[in-house]
Amino acid sequence: MALLNFRRKEAPAETTSSPEVDAFLKDYSIEVMPRTAEKVEDFTALLPSGTRVYIAHIEGTPIEDMVATARRLNADGYRVMPHFPARIIKDRATLANWIAMYQGEADVKQALLLAGGVSEPHGDFSDSMQLMETGLFDEAGFERLHVAGHPEGNRDIDTDGSRRNVDAALKWKNDFQTRTDAKMAIATQFAFDAQPIIAWADSLKNAGITLPVHIGIAGPAKLQTLIKFAIACGVGPSLKVLQKRAMDVTKLLLPYEPTEVIQQLALHKAANPDFNITNVHFFPLGGIKTNATWAIENGGASTVPANPS
């Protein structure tokens, strides 16, 4: 079974569009950074109204740039969800200031809480659970908190290659939702193979973790670009797939599109309505416009549901 779908640029366009895929892509989300958002002249020409847009906070990005991006996207009618990376937040006062800036200047009501991509904490926080325990998001009236998930594990957290620590953290976060009124979901790292994704999602359900899963999917991109990001993000099994593809010179120049993984997950969801993957979250590794265009051409222009996840 092929894990990735490649086609030559001159080949006739093939889409995944079907009732199952349309339903699966409804209320998809996408990620931007301030520096990439600056290059987009008009988001309303690319993304359906009401789309949830995550704003990635990379180390070194001034909070003012993050807030300005959030303000722009909110004004354009999008549900804005900035990252709060625990390890680059110095202390409780800094966190409170960020929350106040987002709310006061951009009317932000949602957040993705994660450890962040740095190895050593810059201050008091080392993980997202500590951010949640401050109570600041609840006090500020945030409507939704998302947390990170890793279908292929996370070597930074579980150095032995297991999922012991990441699964324990998800159980803690699941319990946090049950003892509070927080609306939560898991937003995952990107992966390329549907069957391991399904097995991972089922394992969460079997462990009693009821948080809905927003599965991370890499948007259309050059193979070389995907390999670069997979290495940077620690995507293990998927990286091996990409490296194998890269050994074939005839495929090295062909663009990747997430056709097969979306189709397979959509069909599984249609056959199993209680499947805990509820949404798709796109990482636009080949560019926001390229990803947004692919999503629209493949059924992602669906309107946002009345009660989005």
UniProtKB/TrEMBL annotation:
It comes from the Bacteria. InterPro entries: FAD-linked_oxidoreductase-like. SUPFAM superfamilies: FAD-linked oxidoreductase (SSF51730). Keywords: Oxidoreductase. This is Methylenetetrahydrofolate reductase. The lineage of its organism: Bacteria, Pseudomonadati, Pseudomonadota, Alphaproteobacteria, Rhodobacterales.
